[in-house]
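Quarterly update from the structural biology core.
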Amino acid sequence: MLDLVRWNPFEELSSWHRDIDELFNRFAGRRLGGNTSAPAWGEFFPPVETYTKDGQYVVRLDLPGIDAKEVEVTAERGILTIRGERKNAHEAKEADYQYSEVFTGRFERRLPLPQGVDTEKLQARYHQGVLEVSVPLPQALTGRKIPIQLEAQKSIENKAA
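Predicted structure, tokenized:
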């Protein structure tokens, strides 16, 4: 026997909404959705992640196929700027391509640094296509572990007696 299922038009619209967002993000270079640091059409925009570990603020960028000599790291007025260029590794004419999602050209990422970091202590390492920039966090931002004091068991023992 066939079961009847109530049709929900909003469920279909929600699915279409996600599909249209993905389409625009793919072709508009992720500019939609309020991300003002997103690239313009056709720009290379390397993915970045930031985290804290062992009292260090760490920024990592995936830069596969980019020579470390083509990357520049600067810090000014609390902003970390990473610039570089991905050059075309092979000589192919546009007409020879079937399909390509590989971007070449200049890129720039600007990221705010936590307040109070000493930019003179910035360190940058490049290994196997990953750039890692780290800087020690000020003591005020690293936090501290607060011990929990336990109450004495006497008050519980007195009630039992």
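Confidence is low (pLDDT under 50) at residues 29-41.
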